[in-house]
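WARN no homologs supplied; continuing
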Amino acid sequence: MEKESFENEEVADILNKHFVAIKVDREERPDIDHIYMAVCQTLIGSGGWPLSIFMTPEAKPFYAGTYFPKSDRMGMPGLLNILNQINKIWTTNRGNLLQSSQEILNAISQSNNVNNNSNETTNNICNKVIDEAYMQYTSSFDSEYGGFGRAPKFPTPHNLLFLLRYWYKTKEIYALEMVEKTLTSMYKGGIYDHIGFGFSRYSTDRIWLVPHFEKMLYDNALLSIAYLETFHITKNKFYASIAKQIFGYVLNNMTSHGGGFYSAEDADSEGEEGKFYLWSIDEVMQVLGKEAGDKFCAFYDITKKGNFEGRNIPNLNNSIPSGSNTEFIEMCRNKLYNYREKRIHPYKDDKILTSWNGLMIAALSIGGRILGEKQYTIAAEKAITFIFNNLIREDGRLLARYRDHDASFPAYVDDYAFMIWGLIELYETTFKPDYLQKALSLNKDLLELFWDEENGGLFVYGSDGEKLITRPKEIYDGATPSGNSVAALNFFKLAKLTGQYQLEEKGEHLLKSFSRDIQNHPMAYSFSLIAVLFAQASAKEVVIIDPDVCIKNFVLVKEYSISVGTQKMIDIINCEFRPFTVTILYSKQHENLKHIAPFISDYNSINGKATAYVCENFACKAPTTNIEDLKSL
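OK structure emitted
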C-alpha cells in the first residue's frame, strides 16, 4: 500500500483534500493498534496488517479493512473508490455513518467489559485444559517438517516452551519430540540465516525454506530460550550452538552502544525483498573458489537454477549436519559473511522497545545461567542499566520507546510484564538483590496502573495513559506472549522468591478472569498455560545460605565472592531443567535481601558451611550441607 497508494499523487490528493491521514507505528502504540484491530475483526471477521480504519473526528470507527489495492481489482475494492464513496456518504448522509460508528463502539466496549470469570481455580483450569491443549498441538503438528499447521508457518516459541513443560510434568516423550523436530527443521530451513545467523519472522512455505526476510528481536529472544531449554533437557550441544549463534547475531547487529537492543531488520534492501540474503552460484564460486565452492554449494543447496526467484536461499533441508566438516563450513561462512557485509544492508529499525528488551534480557540471563557464559549475563545487565537510565521518567514511570535520545509513551502492560520477567531471570542468574527489588517495584506499579479492580486482569494501557475510545484487556498469546500471561507467571514466581504470597492470589485471580477464553481455545493461550502449570506444580523454592568464612575459601562470582560450596550448590541446581523451581541466595554481602524477602532471616548456615533448604507447599525439608543430599532433594 505504501508503494501503490501512499506514494501516489492521485491518492494523496484525495486523502489530503477530504481526510486527516494518520500513520500509526503499532510497536510504539500497541494500545491504538489493539483497539482498532478489534474493530476490523468485528466488522469483517478477520484482521491483519496493513490495517486501514476510517473514523469520525472523535475517533469512532465506521469502516475498516486490511490491504486495499489502489484501484478496484478482481472483486477487491480499490482505495480510490473507497475514499470517494466515503467522502460522498460523509457529505450527503453523515447521520448513518455516525450511527454506525456508535453501534460499532458499543459492540467493542461491550466485548471488553464482559465478565470472563468462571468458578474455576487454576487447578481446575489445568485439569480440564492442559491435556486438551496438548492434544490440539499433536493434531496440528507437521510430523514431516515440524511446526504446526501448513503455510505460512510462524515460530511461536512459547508454544514450544509449553510443550517442554508438559513433557517435564507428564514425561510424555512425544511432547519433547515435537519440540526437537520443530527446532531442528527451523534451523535447517531458510528461515534461519546460515551466513549471518538469526531467524526471520516466518516461513511462507511448509518446509521453512522461503522466509519473510524481516528479523525481529522478539522472535530471536524467545527462540533462543526454546533452544536453550531443549539443550538443558537433552544435553545435545547442537541446540546450545544455535542459541549461541542467535546471541552472536543480536550482540553484533542489534545492540546499541549503550546496551539496549534494536527492534528489527527489514526484509527489503535496494527495494527488493530478501536481496541482501540471496546468492547466485557464481558469487559463491567467486568468493570461495571452485573446490570449496562446489562443496559449500552442495551442502547448502545452492544451484544454477536457484530456489527463490532464480537465486538461492542457503539451507540444510537436504543435508545432514556433521561435526567432521564444521571447521570447513565456518571458514566458508566467514568469507561469505565478509563479502555480504559489503552489500547494501536492509533498513534497521533502531527503536529500542522496553517490552522486547525485557524478552532479550530474559533470554541472555537464561543463556548465562545454563551455558555458564558470563558475556551473556554482562550483556543482560548492561541492557537493564540502559533501560533504567533512559526509559524511566522523572516521576519513576516506565516508558515504552527510546530512539535518538528521546524516550516516549508511558509503558504498556507488555513493557512491564516482559521487563519484570527479564529482571527475575537476571536475579536467578546473578543473585543480586537489586534486580529482585527492581522487579518488585515495577510489579507494584503494574498493579496500581493496570489492574482491573472490577473484573480482574490487566488493561493494555495504564490508568494514566491517553484515554482512547475503549480500554481493552488481552490474554491471547500471539507472535509474543501476552502481557497478562507473562504477568501471571511473574506473580507466582515473585511470591515464591519474596514471600509476598498475596501475589499468588493475584495470579489466580488474573487467570480466573480469562478462564473462559482459555478453556474455549487452549492452544491460543500457551503462555497462560505455562503459568497454570507453574501454579499447579507446587513449585519448589531452594534457599542457599552462603557461609561467612575466610576469604581463601571463596570464589569470585559476578563482582562478589561466594564460597566454593555455595557455587557447587548453584551448579547442581542449574545443571538440570527445573521449570517449577526458584532459587534464592543469601550472603552477608547482600543484607538488603532481608528487606526484600524478610523470611530469609529464618534461614541459617550450618556449621559455617554452605547450606541449602528445599521447600514446597510452605514447608521445608531438613537443611543440608551435602551436595549429594541436595541432588536427591
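The radius of gyration is 26 Å.
OK
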